[in-house]
Design brief:
five-stranded mixed sheet, about 15% strand, Cyt_B5-like_heme/steroid_sf, metal-binding
């Protein structure tokens, strides 16, 4: 059975000697990892301890190794009543990622296409014949 915690439960664990964080609706006891965190203890304490740190975690673009390492510290799930705010954030975050993707305009497609047609026409279909 999975343990269920509220944000209020998590907020009580906000020191380097007893630190829980919420990431993507999962609750982690990262106390043992605090001294090894490459970003320093201070960052964990100020930005993550006893909080939902999903946004801060994603802003850093943590590696896959960091995400895999994190799994060993999972102790439960966030209560569904506290997940509502997370769902709103995640949809906004996903929309931002979609908006940040480069957009293909007509010019970015047509210019290289026309250049390729001209080169093919000039050098393949009608090459210059040099007479020596």
């Amino acid at each position: 059975m999975v343990n269920i915690y509220t944000l209020k439960d998590v907020s009580k664990h906000n020191t380097k000697e007893d630190m829980w964080v919420v990431l993507h609706n999962k609750v982690y006891n990262v106390t043992a990892f605090v001294p090894a965190h490459p970003g320093s203890e201070d960052i964990l304490i100020t930005r993550a301890a006893g909080k939902d740190a999903t946004e801060a975690f994603e802003d850093i673009n943590h590696s896959e190794l960091a995400r895999e390492t994190l799994e060993q510290f999972m102790i439960g799930q966030l209560h569904e009543d506290d997940c509502v705010a997370r769902k709103v954030f995640e949809s906004v975050y996903e929309r931002k990622i979609e908006e940040d993707k480069p957009k293909r305009s007509l010019a970015t497609v047509l210019i290289p296409t026309f250049a390729a047609i001209i080169l093919i026409y000039k050098y393949v279909l009608h090459p210059r014949i040099s007479v020596s």
